């Protein structure tokens, strides 16, 4: 398998370590975010009904964590359930569909199985967060929101483009590299504070994200990592993405988001005008990505002429290392 420096791994252990560092990069502990302020009275009740509802949302036959306790088992044992949450995690590495180059660790996907009780706790955290903020009112996002999908994202793109009287509309479709793996916690927590999340909820999330570990067991040796695959992860990703909504767009520009894919549209009378103006918005997106410790994938980022006769081989620059290629 190919490492970042271009050399190949030579042992199974070296390959496993490369996969571990790719899926679960070490968090930057030098940048701490301290949540300061009084914790207001929590006026919502966490009782057996809420916890039961959170557990009953999980399909009984869903794969359990390393503890082997499925939601079905917990349902049967519900009358005697305790509230202890296990932090054990299991990891399975699978090739991503359609990936040919298996020497690239990004061609694989980790599957982490959180314990069922941890998923139930995450559900309660999510409900509190949604109750305290306007997270679900971020209209640009079409994933992780009930009633929205790829279909609604495509419809919004076309409903904005088709009525436009501009002669040219170009779209830059941006793809993130390791979005869920690499997102920084500090900017996400800062954004939570800006959105009005309570001190209590922020402290719970901060504590929940601290000292997380994943086990890589090979030949009896256990190594470190950070757990993935949670229900809370997509919600926190939504939080980070809401900062994109603060980019001021004029009426001739539009942003549509699906999960970690971003479509930036720009209309103009002339192609070159659209190109020059779209670079300004790309710079804003690059600033957002840098703050969140994220990177765009240059090879996967494309520019498409949605309307007008734009000739091939144009490029639009953003940042130093990325170009959006016109197809």
From TrEMBL:
InterPro entries of this UniProt entry? RT_dom
Q: PROSITE patterns from the xrefs?
A: RT_POL
Q: Which UniProt keywords apply?
A: Nucleotidyltransferase, RNA-directed DNA polymerase, Transferase
Q: Which GO terms describe its molecular function?
A: RNA-directed DNA polymerase activity
Q: Does the keyword Transferase apply?
A: yes
One matching Pfam family is RVT_1
Q: Which domain of life is it from?
A: Eukaryota
Domain Reverse transcriptase: residue ranges: 75-327
Family annotation (PANTHER family):
REVERSE TRANSCRIPTASES
This protein is called what? Reverse transcriptase domain-containing protein
Organism (species): Aphis craccivora (Cowpea aphid)
